[in-house]
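Page 37, continued from 36.
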């Protein structure tokens, strides 16, 4: 009798463990997506895109939605525009105003219960507390721009090769949302110059990372329910950026994967539309303080 009871108890433990670990997070996505991977490239200017030299971006373009006219806010520099993309609102609202801001330069127009202007990580966690969120980046300035309490895996690393390796690991974990940031286009632009042969070679290297990360999404078995977004913070000219000129302000924006309708995006798109698009894809509620609009025209479901 005792042996039979122990056998039943062991079976119950296995059953409970199985049902606990196998229970999938229910995502209320209008396009059926369960995962969003955002690939961010610092200093990747739209004016320097040669599709024939960038086969993996070209693949995303031909099979997804795209524009070369996503526009930054001013000044067209890094912290202010990554923050703008992360929080769905312009600098006048979130308060980051300079290249390397580590905190708002002016008080945010609104702060939530966590004492910050709401970012996409926080919004996803509010909607789905069990969502897996992650971020890897090679510029430490990224780490000051969002609520780290809402990020399960936060990995600052040294150099873009390390970003790539860690990005593969994050994808293998099948995250609900992951932000993978590369910084070499900006570094090459500042050291050698935007549009130089060295800069164009850096874009080719970034394209190679894109292709390999798309392969990792396939290997992880999540390609059929993942949306991948590509964006940058600014472009540049000579060895600088920050001005109100289009080669500084316009960046590529691509959306690829589940539910995406192939073709050029003809709607106007600005940086604060990115967080709104991610929130909409994952069925997360957009805060009233946000000003971005989801790019619904890029999807079959609207």
């Amino acid at each position: 009798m005792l042996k039979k009871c122990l056998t039943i108890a062991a079976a119950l433990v296995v059953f409970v463990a199985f049902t606990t670990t196998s229970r999938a997070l229910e995502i209320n996505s209008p396009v059926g997506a369960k995962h969003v991977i955002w690939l961010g490239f610092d200093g990747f200017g739209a004016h320097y895109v040669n599709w024939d030299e960038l086969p993996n971006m070209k693949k995303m373009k031909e099979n997804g939605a795209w524009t070369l006219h996503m526009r930054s806010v001013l000044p067209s520099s890094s912290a202010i525009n990554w923050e703008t993309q992360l929080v769905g609102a312009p600098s006048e609202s979130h308060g980051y105003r300079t290249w390397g801001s580590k905190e708002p330069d002016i008080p945010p127009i609104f702060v939530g219960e966590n004492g910050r202007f709401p970012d996409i990580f926080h919004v996803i966690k509010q909607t789905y507390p069990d969502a897996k969120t992650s971020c890897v980046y090679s510029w430490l300035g990224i780490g000051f721009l969002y609520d780290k309490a809402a990020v399960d895996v936060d990995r600052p690393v040294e150099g873009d090769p390390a970003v790539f390796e860690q990005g593969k690991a994050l994808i293998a974990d099948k995250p609900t949302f992951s932000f993978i940031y590369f910084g070499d286009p900006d570094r090459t632009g500042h050291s050698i110059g935007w549009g130089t042969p060295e800069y164009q070679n850096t874009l080719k290297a970034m394209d190679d990372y894109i292709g390999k990360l798309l392969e990792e999404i396939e290997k992880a078995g999540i390609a059929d329910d993942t949306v991948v977004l590509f964006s940058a913070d600014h472009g540049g000219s000579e060895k600088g950026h920050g001005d109100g000129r289009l080669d500084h302000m316009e960046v590529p924006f691509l959306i690829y994967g589940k539910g995406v309708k192939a073709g050029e995006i003809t709607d106007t798109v600005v940086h604060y539309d990115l967080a709104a698009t991610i929130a909409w894809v994952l069925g997360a509620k957009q805060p009233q303080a946000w000003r971005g609009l989801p790019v619904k025209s890029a999807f079959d479901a609207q």
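Residues 50 and 200 are 9 Å apart (CA to CA). Flag for discussion at group meeting. The longest strand covers residues 250-257.
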